[in-house]
């Protein structure tokens, strides 16, 4: 979360300086600088994700040297999941905190002809961002470990695309639907990257069904018979 905050601080400084050095009366230029700031923010986030990966690799080597069996007690996949989840949570907090503050009032959403679905759409977008950062963390760490540059490029490209789709708001159908499609596809990718498979899902479901049938059978045996 700290690494994400530092990336946000640097991106904000770059955007702040570029705005003050430009013509504030030019609306198109200011909109272009906003898009530029969002792109810079995405690139800095991924750069700091890579820096965090390198830091964890150093820490992993240190943990392995002091352990009894010579192996680190924390796996790379666990670190990737925790890293992505922390990126997602802090990103979601910053995405929704101002919206929650505005929701206190005064005023009613949509009273001036705006969309009444602003808050619920923002909630779904925030949820998608949290999930995406978690999935990106798993894929990114695995790609760095296996040195798959094309995977890193796809992660950065999907992050840029997701950030760019938010500029379509308040046309929420054009932004929310593609973002959730990206979230679903990225989630499947992260699932298989982490070692998952459809065979494991079927095994998991079959085990749950067997456990459920055993519980029902045990409960039936425990019911006293009536005369």
Automatic annotation (TrEMBL):
Subunit structure: Component of the gamma-secretase complex.
Signal peptide: 1-22
Domain of life (superkingdom): Eukaryota
This protein's UniProt keywords: Membrane, Notch signaling pathway, Signal, Transmembrane, Transmembrane helix
Main location group: membrane
Listed Pfam families: Aph-1
Membrane topology label: Multi-pass membrane protein
GO annotation terms (biological process): Notch signaling pathway; protein processing
InterPro entries the UniProt entry points to: Aph-1
GO CC, alphabetical: gamma-secretase complex
Segments traversing the membrane: 31-48, 79-97, 117-141, 148-168, 174-192
Protein name, as recorded: Gamma-secretase subunit APH-1
Function recorded in the entry: Potential subunit of the gamma-secretase complex, an endoprotease complex that catalyzes the intramembrane cleavage of integral proteins such as Notch receptors.
UniProt cross-references to PANTHER family, sorted A to Z: GAMMA-SECRETASE SUBUNIT APH-1
Compartments reported by the entry: Membrane
């Amino acid at each position: 979360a700290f690494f994400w905050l530092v990336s946000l601080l640097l991106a904000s400084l770059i955007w702040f300086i570029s705005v003050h050095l430009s013509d504030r009366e030019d609306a198109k230029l200011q909109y272009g600088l906003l898009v530029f700031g969002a792109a810079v923010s995405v690139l800095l986030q991924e750069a700091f994700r890579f820096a965090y990966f390198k830091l964890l690799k150093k820490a992993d080597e240190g943990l392995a040297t002091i352990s009894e069996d010579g192996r680190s007690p924390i796996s790379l996949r666990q670190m990737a999941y925790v890293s992505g989840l922390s990126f997602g949570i802090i990103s979601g907090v910053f995405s929704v905190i101002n919206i929650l503050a505005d929701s206190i009032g005064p005023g009613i959403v949509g009273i001036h002809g705006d969309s009444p679905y602003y808050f619920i759409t923002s909630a779904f977008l925030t949820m998608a961002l949290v999930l995406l950062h978690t999935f990106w963390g798993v894929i990114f760490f695995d790609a760095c470990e296996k040195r798959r540059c094309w995977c890193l490029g796809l992660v950065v490209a999907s992050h840029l695309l997701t950030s760019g789709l938010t500029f379509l708001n308040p046309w929420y159908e054009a932004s929310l639907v593609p973002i959730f499609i990206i979230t679903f596809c990225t989630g499947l990718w992260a699932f298989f990257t982490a070692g998952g498979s459809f065979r494991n899902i079927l095994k998991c479901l079959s085990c749950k069904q067997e456990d459920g049938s055993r519980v029902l059978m045990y409960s039936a045996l425990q019911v006293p018979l009536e005369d």
